[in-house]
């Protein structure tokens, strides 16, 4: 271990004033290093570990946190037995994955946020922080120690929740003797190759302009921006007799023998949907590729999913399949059958094998832990500058805003923003949404329930954004506040 | 600042402000102080005189409105300087769910002291403050005096060069008070500089080399205790074993020789000394048990693992 390794430097021998705050710029010190303390890398980690261990115990002793953890245990253990499914394996999967995990995650968000909000503020209020900050520990070390404690607590809770849900799922599969097709899976999702959202916005704009349907009092830029924003959610209509085709190029080639699944989510007018019928033609467009036709009559469901053996799609044995085309033809009678509405960018996709369900579960857990880590960072920084009730209130308000900001942005149309109040609300939610967009771009629980493999890019983005960038930014802010703030009891 | 100076305060001023930044109270005004190496310095004053505010500015817990503080050759916020200081606050502010052993281990970790060395120091300090038997009970269950002992032990875990003690004897019984005073004296002998505040003037008189008296934030008096309390126009003799008649005779002779009034009295024990005498009859070993933790006397830091 490096002992007393830093060189002494000249000292300005002047302490900063309250107005100046912090250490004076250029202020160096002539202090020699003491016999009682170490400054090496090991000592640095020892400080962070000590702060972390104490914060872990302090967080667990918070009554609100304990109450929420009891609630969490009840949700994981009791919820699947309280909510009755429709008796199908899909229903059981929905309850165990979607309901249990979503509710548990919501509780964990509150546990994390409120525990984080209490860690600094409670210490400052009780003046316990005085004994800590007079020791050779920097505000950043304090902040990181506490953050690591919260992440460790969250990791433990996530492990227990996911472990509990997985164990229940295994038991249900075993008891229900589910077939291979019914068991939860992990599949790569490939969406069709479509023009960019900007290109699509331009096409729609030109079409509206030609039809003189452009909204009044809005500039071209506003209309294009609005169209681009809403392009992923834009429904296309497939009328009876109409034929639509999409091309797919999965990032990983499909091995011969692997199942290729087609999924199409749709909306129809329910009362007439029984009269809808359609025909799917799935082809491999590689050399030697074949076409497989699947007729479908049951459009009463909101999602159609069918599987094709990849060996039927190619003449070549063992050759990987890289390019596909899907054609859908609405074969319903024009007089009685209703049109089908679907979002091409979201609702139509090819599903190909993508690893084990267990690995996908672990990815989902990591992504959720990442969101909790970002929340912990937010709560800690709030608690460094506000008292416990104010920090908890502000944190919860921000959390709610994060949750609803996406919906506000999606449902608000340009004309509604002419009112000043609406404009401010939209502006706030838009910027909140943009600020947190990269923290929650994926819906891991939805992906698990749909059997979609959580992408490596999403995982990487979470790891970098939620575990590194956001905590580093919040740590910088929290440490800056702690350095400038007077932490003594009689400063209040 | 010379190498012999551990604390130098120049024109220090602290004004507390309200939410709107309006000044509410001048807690310290134009304070100038110097504390030398190896000295026990007492900061005295009534409640609200600015003692604790001064100490908190020294520790970087409060920022001065103006003025300069030089602590061991650097600013109080310097991390390296913090490693050389021990601090005992007026209220112990310990984590109630930690035991004394865990508390000392925690603060040792904040100093970056390796765990083996930290354990050694912890055990010695627990023995020194007589908390070995209660070492594994949560601090939250302790009396104020016991918590004070833990606070004192944590202030010494880093073998400090400068010890800042805010009301060190507050909450202690007379035996504890005596032990703390002995400890302060022993530490000072070992070269540790000590700045202490106290409301108990008798305690301060027993342990301090120099004192400063603050009132309403302003320094009223400063100097060596002996100089401040000395009455240069009077001389006092103390003779053991003189009966009353011989004492009266001696007094008459002195008065006739000097032509001045001679005051005669019988010296009494202080209440503290009397109490300790009474209590120590039954448990002499306890009162005299007190000794420094050996690591505090070590000259060289043992090599860290």
Offer a few descriptive terms.
heterodimer, A: 492 residues, alpha+beta, Jelly Rolls, 13 helices, 52% helix, disordered N terminus, B: 305 residues, alpha/beta, Rossmann fold, six-stranded mixed beta sheet, 37% helix
Structure overview:
The complex is a heterodimer of chains A (492) and B (305). Chain A is of the alpha+beta class and 492 residues long. Chain A folds into two domains: 41-185 and 358-491, no CATH class; 197-353, Jelly Rolls (Sandwich), CATH 2.60.120. Chain A contains 13 helices and ten strands. Chain A is globular and about 80 Å long. The two termini of chain A are 40 Å apart. The model of chain A is unreliable at 1-34 (pLDDT under 50). Chain B is an alpha/beta fold. Chain B has a single domain, classed as P-loop containing nucleotide triphosphate hydrolases (Rossmann fold). Chain B contains twelve helices and nine strands. Chain B starts with a strand and ends in an 8-residue tail after the last helix. The model of chain B has no long low-confidence stretch (mean pLDDT 85). The interface between A and B is large, with 61 and 63 residues.
